[in-house]
Design goal:
Elements: E1 16-22, E2 28-40, E3 47-52, E4 58-63, E5 70-73, E6 77-82, E7 87-93, H1 96-129, H2 141-149, H3 153-165, H4 169-183, H5 186-201, H6 205-211, H7 217-223, H8 235-241, H9 256-273, H10 280-302, H11 305-316, H12 322-338, H13 344-357, H14 359-366, H15 372-388, H16 390-399, H17 402-411, H18 421-430, H19 437-450, H20 452-462, H21 473-478, H22 484-500, H23 502-512, H24 514-518, H25 527-541, H26 546-554, H27 559-568, H28 574-588, H29 592-606, H30 613-659, H31 662-681, H32 721-736, H33 756-771, H34 775-782, H35 811-830, H36 838-844
Antiparallel strand pairs: 1-2, 1-7, 2-3, 3-4, 5-6, 6-7
Helix pairs in contact: 1-3, 2-5, 4-5, 9-10, 12-15, 14-15, 15-16, 15-18, 16-19, 17-18, 18-22, 22-23, 22-25, 25-28, 28-30, 29-30, 33-34, 33-36
Length: about 850
């Protein structure tokens, strides 16, 4: 106690508390403030709580009890009711850390007190009660039951050891059971039942191995028949009279037969006799015994070469009766099932050995029998092979496709209420894409070439050919009756094929129009088949394949889906949801081909369901696609026209230089010089013509002798570069028109453009300067009229569209056009931008 006052300073604030006592009036009375510690009581080994004030006087001394009397209220208060003084006390801490610290100490002390009491009790029980088992007599049955069923963990271990060392205990107990059963002593029989159940619950593998032996097992089962909580059940009678052990092939190994019998009895006890009384540990131990026995049996049988050879010889023999063959197939199925107890490498080796012995050939013969239960047994064996190694079955199918055809045939057969999905699972595993390429391609080709059309024909033959859900009497007689479950399996298999090998199935769909045949399912009365057809369409659309979508649009394959949706009306069911989800997917993925096809073809029907957001969003998406398509087409048309206008004249220049060689250019220069002399002598007013502006593009220019001529306003010279392109565009559109003749045509080229005549004249000027350096001669070369170069003109249709002729028959038109051409030419020469000589344009470029 002296140490109680020497509390370290670091703990003062953390352990500072107020002590409260609950009075008879229900009021908490403050007993003072001090510091709390946990220490040993004076002259005792028990721990207690002590609270001392600043003067080291004890405010509280409490022995910590193992009873659950302590309560923690919030983070600051610990309260309890002291059993010694019948008072209620409470400690209010200054800090939450101190409260948690003391609370953990109290819990730790109470925990240690519980462990100490348990250890002392177990030690006392083992030393006092289970030193040896009492003799097996009718009067000692209660004491035996107490030792077996009511001892602790340590006592159970000791009892198990005593039972294993006592060789006569179980024999004496079974003798006593038979005596009590003969005397019909029900109370003693109930007590023996509890003793046997307690021995089993000891969960000792050695004891279980002993009681499940051939000598004791039937008597042990007899003891378990007398359960006081359930009516009496004759398990021994059932095992002796109704359970018959059949040997398909005589088993000569002395170890195998006892293991087989023991395994069955353990399983019967676990599943039938004591399903409610066994705990999880005992059930796990019993399962371990069964698993171990199965592994021993399969290992011994597979290593017996004589046994395996005799088994397959009987299965392949034509003289074997149908009943014997059925028994052999069931034995083979159980043998393959028990192989799961082996390790994986041993399982794989066993299955490969069975394949080499010809087990798959036997299964192929089994699938052709009329006994449907036997067919399902053979199917179970195939599933075991697929679960072990699918490549074993695939390699066999690629060599002999008879088995594959039998699987497809049985998929379409009616097995009553038995499982059709077994054949579906086998086919799906064989067609799985996650396999080696060679095997997968071979199996897939076999399926598509030989069996896909067969599945499609079943759908076609079982669906009506008229409107949805209506079958006439004639069609009822002619149509082949197929269970709806079979059609559902076919549709699911097709969806699986679309996902795993889309390219191969696309060829079959497009070439044979199989999509429309599958959609015949929308005509069935069964709504889940209609939903399956829509799900098939949804899977097909999810591939986003353009060829498939074009095929859908071309053959109007959405019509059955929309008709089924329309016929469903406003009913909110699975069909309604799956169709709306299909439309929503088309909208979200922006499948424009199907989007336009749906709205353009079926909006008259879909408009009635416009209250659904999916339908409204579909129409909005359709309108947006039309707007975007129209904008792009307009922009592309304007860009195309602009590029044509800008490059038309440049193309003429390129064509000119590409089509004429150097010799032709020289000949053109010489002919131009000769023609200048002739042109000067034939002018009507007898004067030398002035040089026409290359930008005016007038065909003939004359000197302006008319005093009454009034030149046009100079508007064109002020046009900006941007407006020049627009003006040229309008003039060109006017030239295209053939209905309106143009007696006065004024062609004006934009700035920077070089017509062919100008380029030709500039080129001639360059050549003439090199040959004739005289400036006047060079000027005369540029005065050649445009009519002399009409042979090389890039506009051969000018004469057809009102162009001016130099003949005497059209002199009036020449004179009329002369004034306009001359005026426009003068206006261009007057502008500063147009005073540069064409020779300078060529040299500058």
């Amino acid at each position: 106690m002296g140490a109680q006052g020497e509390v370290p300073t670091v703990y003062n604030s953390m352990q500072r508390v107020k002590v409260y006592l609950l009075t008879d009036d229900g009021i908490w009375d403050d007993q003072g403030t001090g510091h709390v510690t946990v220490d040993y009581l004076k002259k005792s080994e028990d721990l207690g709580l002590f609270v001392n004030d600043a003067d080291n006087e004890t405010l509280l001394s409490h022995r910590i009890s193992s009873d659950d009397i302590y309560h923690k209220q919030g983070d600051m208060i610990i309260s309890w009711k002291d059993p010694e003084f019948s008072t209620e006390l409470a400690l209010s801490f200054q800090e939450t850390t101190g409260c948690s610290y003391i609370w953990d100490h109290i819990c730790s002390v109470r925990r240690n007190m519980h462990f100490s009491s348990l250890n002392g009790e177990t030690h006392c029980n083992v030393n006092s009660a289970v030193k040896e088992l009492p003799p097996v007599e009718l009067s000692t049955l209660p004491l035996i039951l107490k030792n077996v069923g009511e001892s602790g963990i340590a006592g159970q271990l000791q009892v198990a050891e005593l039972l294993l060392h006592d060789k006569y205990f179980f024999g004496k107990l079974m003798d006593l059971f038979r005596i009590c059963e003969d005397l019909e002593n029900i109370d003693s029989l109930h007590m023996i039942f509890k003793i046997v159940k307690g021995i089993i619950l000891l969960n000792s593998p050695q004891i279980l191995e002993k009681i499940f032996g051939d000598e004791l097992i039937m008597d042990i089962i007899g003891c378990l028949e007398y359960d006081p909580d359930v009516p009496h059940v004759h398990h021994r009678h059932f095992l002796r009279e109704h359970v018959v052990f059949k040997e398909a092939i005589p088993i000569k190994d002395p170890v195998v037969l006892p293991k087989i019998h023991q395994t069955y009895r353990v399983a019967y006890l676990k599943d039938v006799i004591l399903p409610r009384a066994l705990d999880e540990a005992t059930v796990a131990n019993l399962n371990s015994i069964i698993h171990s026995n199965n592994a021993i049996v399969v290992s011994l049988l597979k290593d017996d070469s004589t046994f395996i050879q005799e088994l397959f010889a009987r299965l392949k023999s034509p003289t074997t009766s149908a009943e014997s063959k059925k028994t052999l197939v069931h034995f083979l199925h159980e043998f393959c099932t028990l192989s799961k107890s082996l390790q994986m490498t041993q399982q794989l080796r066993l299955f490969r050995d069975l394949v080499s012995e010809g087990i798959l050939d036997i299964i192929a013969d089994v699938l052709q029998t009329e006994d449907k239960k036997l067919v399902l047994t053979g199917t179970d064996i195939l599933i075991l092979f697929l679960n072990q190694d699918p490549n074993i079955l695939r390699s066999y199918v690629t060599r002999q496709d008879v088995l594959f055809g039998l699987l497809v045939k049985n998929l379409l057969a009616d097995f009553g209420d038995d499982m059709h999905c077994q054949f579906f699972e086998i086919l799906r595993s064989l067609l799985d894409s996650y396999t080696s390429e060679s095997q997968k391609d071979n199996v897939v080709e076999i399926f598509y070439e030989k069996h896909l059309c067969q599945l499609i024909d079943v759908i076609t033959s079982s669906c009506p050919s008229n409107t949805i859900g209506q079958i006439t009497d004639g069609e009822t007689r002619n149509k082949k009756r197929v269970k709806p479950e079979i059609l559902l399996n076919i549709c699911d298999l097709l969806c699986f094929c679309i996902l795993h090998h889309p390219n191969r199935i696309k060829c079959s769909f497009l070439c044979h129009n199989m999509i429309g045949k599958v959609l015949y399912l929308t005509r069935r009365r069964e709504k889940y088949l209609v939903v399956a057809a829509v799900r098939f369409m949804r899977t097909l659309v999810s591939r986003n394949d353009e060829d498939t979508m074009n095929h859908i649009v071309k053959n109007n394959l959405f019509k059955p889906v929309v008709d089924a949706f329309f016929a469903n009306g406003d009913r909110y069911n699975l069909l309604n949801s799956v169709v709306l989800e299909l439309f929503e997917y088309i909208r979200k993925e922006n499948l424009k081909i199907l989007l336009r096809y749906l709205v353009d073809s079926f909006w008259d029907q879909l408009v009635k369901f416009e209250n659904f957001s999916s339908i409204r969003s579909l129409k909005v998406k359709y309108e947006q696609s039309l707007e975007s398509a129209g904008t792009r087409s307009t922009v592309s048309l304007l860009d195309h026209r602009k590029r044509v206008d800008e490059r038309a004249l440049e193309k003429e220049e390129e064509d000119y230089f590409n089509d004429n060689s150097d010799e032709e250019d020289s000949a053109s220069v010489s002919m131009a010089s000769a023609n200048r002399v002739q042109s000067q002598s034939v002018l009507p007013n007898g004067s030398i013509p002035s040089y026409p502006s290359p930008r005016s593009h007038g065909l003939v220019d004359y000197d302006d002798d008319d005093e009454d001529y009034k030149p046009p306003p100079k508007k064109l010279s002020d046009i900006s570069d941007k407006d020049e392109g627009v003006a040229e565009f309008r003039l060109k559109r006017k030239l295209v028109s053939k209905e309106e003749p143009e007696p006065k045509r004024l062609k004006w080229s934009p700035k920077g453009a070089k017509p062919r005549e100008v380029v030709f004249a500039s080129f001639c000027s360059t050549l003439s300067q090199t040959a004739l350096p005289c400036k006047e001669t060079a000027s005369a070369a540029f005065d050649t009229p445009h009519s002399d170069t009409n042979e090389n003109s890039s506009e051969p249709n000018h004469e057809e569209k009102g162009s001016i002729s130099t003949s005497n028959e059209s002199r009036g038109a020449v004179v009329e056009n002369q004034d306009s051409s001359r005026s426009f030419s003068n206006s261009l020469h007057d502008s500063p931008d147009n005073r540069q000589h064409p020779e300078m344009d060529v040299n500058g470029s």
